[in-house]
Design brief:
CATH architecture of the largest domain: Alpha-Beta Barrel
Structural class: alpha/beta
CATH superfamily of the largest domain: Metal-dependent hydrolases
Strand content: 15-25%
Helix content: 25-40%
Shape: globular
Number of domains: 2
Low-confidence stretches: 1-17
Oligomer: single chain
Order of helices and strands: EHEEEEEEEHEHEHEHEHEHEHHEHHEEE
Number of strands: 18
CATH class of the largest domain: Alpha Beta
Distance between the termini: 25 Å
Radius of gyration: 21 Å
Mean pLDDT: 93
Number of helices: 11
Largest sheet: 10 strands, mixed
CATH topology of the largest domain: TIM Barrel
């Protein structure tokens, strides 16, 4: 017979440890309801057998192995761990002026990112794609620290640095012309196809997981025009080709319609934001199989902790984003869940779901965007995105039915990553 874990006592005994509990033997989870993201429905009560961090079996009834622990989540709806395909875990949430980077060292950024990573994991996001850091390679260090078990956080796929033109979107700009930035604040600068290739190679040599480029200006960069073009089609194509040479995908920031289309044609795997996408852009995304990562929630977060220039730009162009998002959903564009978290408070990632549902997606489509769709975008569909045998035991639970009220996902009560529990109410 399996032994039943008394969860309240477990938290009292183990709550100071990270993770809360690491199962040494097999564990069987009894789920009151299970959201099957592959079938696209609630499949009702299920039992999940986990061993060595992997899911072994999922069925209405499972023979409990000798010595296995049993965790009763009969009063919960259970889902696969969520994925956020656009985060910035090393951003300073308090002072959102990029010039604030000059007040801090890379070491400070690394240490201050630790609670950010913890908050995102405990919000139910067991995997993230982290798309750039002002201080180059701080995100690589955070990823590696999490993988070693030194700190608590989600599984990270990182970009290492923003690949941008001199003074372009994603750069630290707005300072006097005679100031020279330290190397790690200009690591990703490139101004020709050959320089783009050289920077991609440099990033690949530092073991990044994805390449991030900017096709247009940005809202959150000084003296930058979000609708204007930055990297040329030739530079974008060089980035896409060189990334592919290293087995990496290219994510491209793009607000303006022409920059979006140039990035799609160049071979971007995903368009980040896609704010002013037009009908031609949507048709191109369908044709090329490009993912849209819309980051809708940021509209509610660009406020008093940002320079007035940034707030003004956000107000001018983000009015059209929800309309264009609805059109993308109607057109059948592949929508991948991403929040740009770091603009909004860490751990509030799930607030994105309501905006997606309010603007054309069903609750199941929104959940799938943050599970199987994101897993496909990351090239990790065999490892994460659903609760299925052979995949990592990334499992979360909520008290109510997210298919009836998507905001239920804003209150995740149970988080398991690779068979280890990090949160339990």
């Amino acid at each position: 017979m399996g032994k039943r874990i008394a969860c309240a006592g477990l938290i009292l005994l183990m709550g100071c440890l990270q993770p809360l509990y690491a199962w040494e033997a097999a564990i069987v989870i009894r789920a009151g309801h299970l959201i099957d993201t592959e079938k696209g429905r609630d499949v009702g009560p299920q039992m999940i057998l986990v061993r060595d961090g992997r899911i072994v079996e999922v069925a209405p009834q499972i023979a409990i192995p000798t010595g296995a622990s049993v965790l009763d989540l009969g009063g919960y709806t259970v889902l696969p761990g969520l994925i956020d395909a656009h985060t910035h875990l090393t951003i300073d949430l308090v002072d959102q002026d990029p010039l604030a980077e000059l007040k801090h060292t890379a070491a400070e950024r690394a240490f201050s990112s630790i609670p950010n990573a913890r908050a995102v994991l405990r919000a139910g996001f067991t995997t993230v794609r982290d798309l750039g850091s002002y201080r180059a390679l701080v995100d690589v260090a955070l990823r590696d620290a999490i993988n070693r078990g030194d700190v608590e956080g989600p599984r990270m796929f990182v970009a290492g640095a923003y690949l941008t033109i001199n003074g372009g979107a994603g750069s630290v700009s707005g300072f006097a012309a005679d100031v020279t930035l330290p190397w790690d604040l200009r690591f990703g600068a490139a101004n020709s196809p050959s320089e783009v290739r050289e920077r991609v190679r440099a990033l690949a040599s530092q073991r990044v997981d994805v390449i991030k480029m900017f096709a247009t200006g940005a809202i959150l960069t000084h003296n930058s025009n979000p609708t204007g073009r930055e990297f040329t089609p030739e530079e974008l194509a060089a980035g896409a080709e060189e990334a592919q040479n290293f087995g990496l995908k290219l994510a491209v920031h793009a607000h303006g319609a022409e920059g979006i289309k140039a990035a799609i044609r160049a071979g971007a795997a995903s368009i980040e934001h896609g704010t002013l996408m037009d009908d031609e852009g949507r048709a191109l995304m369908k044709e090329h199989g490009t993912y849209l990562v819309p980051t809708l929630e940021v509209r509610n977060c660009v406020g008093s902790n940002y320079p007035a220039e940034f707030v003004s730009k956000a107000q001018k162009i983000m009015q059209a984003q929800l309309v264009n998002f609805r059109k993308a959903v109607e057109a059948g564009v592949k929508i991948a869940f991403g929040t740009d978290i770091g603009v909004c408070r860490f751990g509030d990632n799930a607030r994105e779901f309501k905006l997606m549902v309010d603007n054309g997606m069903t609750p199941m489509q929104a959940i799938q965007s943050a599970t199987i769709v994101d897993a496909e975008l990351l090239g990790q569909a065999q490892q994460i995105g659903s609760i299925a045998p052979g995949k990592w035991a990334d499992i979360i639970a909520v008290r109510a039915d997210p298919l009836a009220d998507i905001r239920t996902l804003e209150d995740v009560r149970f988080v398991m990553k690779e068979g280890r529990i990090y949160k339990h109410d």
